[in-house]
Structure formats: structure tokens, C-alpha cells
Design goal:
Layout (H helix, E strand, L loop, with lengths): L6 H40 L4 H21 L3 H5 L3 H22 L4 H13 L2 H4 L3 H9 L1
Helix pairs in contact: 1-2, 2-4, 4-5, 4-7
Length: 140
Amino acid sequence: MPIKFEPDIEHIYAKHMLSKFIPLSRLAYGIGIIAFIGYGFWDLMLDPEALERTGPIRLIAVLHFLICIGLSFLQPMRRNPTYWPVLSVYVYCVYGFLFTLILSQLPGGFVAGVGGLILGMIFVPATTSGVRQAASMLGV
């Protein structure tokens, strides 16, 4: 049988956890920015002319993370625990899409770059509350 909690207590707990998730997510997004910029050098090692194809995608990814950091400072996002899982799933889906798009532009990109997808997964437990949210992020 599932455990039932009082709605008020559950809401207080969700707000408390949200206060932990937001700073960790900002850190994850910042590391994502650094990684997307840094892996540009990796692109050049695989293909000296790769930045023409991957550079714009990397720029979109960096701008995406910056926008998500900005969204994390908005009052509705910080006060309502139901918005955060939606943003987290969205961020990870876009991350996965953009990263695989970059890998598709590189010769042997999927073989050489699958570790980058796994790198993004290490932040999922730190930015979500429970198995259901983590599974929805990683399931995509």
C-alpha cells in the first residue's frame, strides 16, 4: 500500500526540496555551458572543419542553458514545486536532442561522444525528486 501524507506536509516537503534542487540545477546548467563550449575543441580533434557545423548548435545549447538559469530566478518557478519537474524534463530533453544533433555532424561522433550523453545523466538525481521524475527525464 502506498504511504499517504497530509497535503500540507507534502507541500512543505516539496518546497523544501525545491530549495535544494534549484541551486544544484544552476550548477548543472553552468557545467553544461562549460562542457558544450569545451567540447568544441573535441569537435576540432575529430574534424578540423567541424565548428562550421557544430558551432551554431553549441551556441544554441549555451543560450538554452543561460535561459534556463534565468528562468530559475523567476518567482513562480521558485515558489511552485510543480513547475520545476517540467523544466527539468524539458532541459534534459533539449540537452539530449542538441547533443545527438552535434554528434551526428561529426565523423564517428556517436562512437566517440556517447560518454557526453552519460555525463549529463549524473545530474539527474540532484535535480529531481524521486524515481518517477528521474525516469521521465532519462526515458526520453
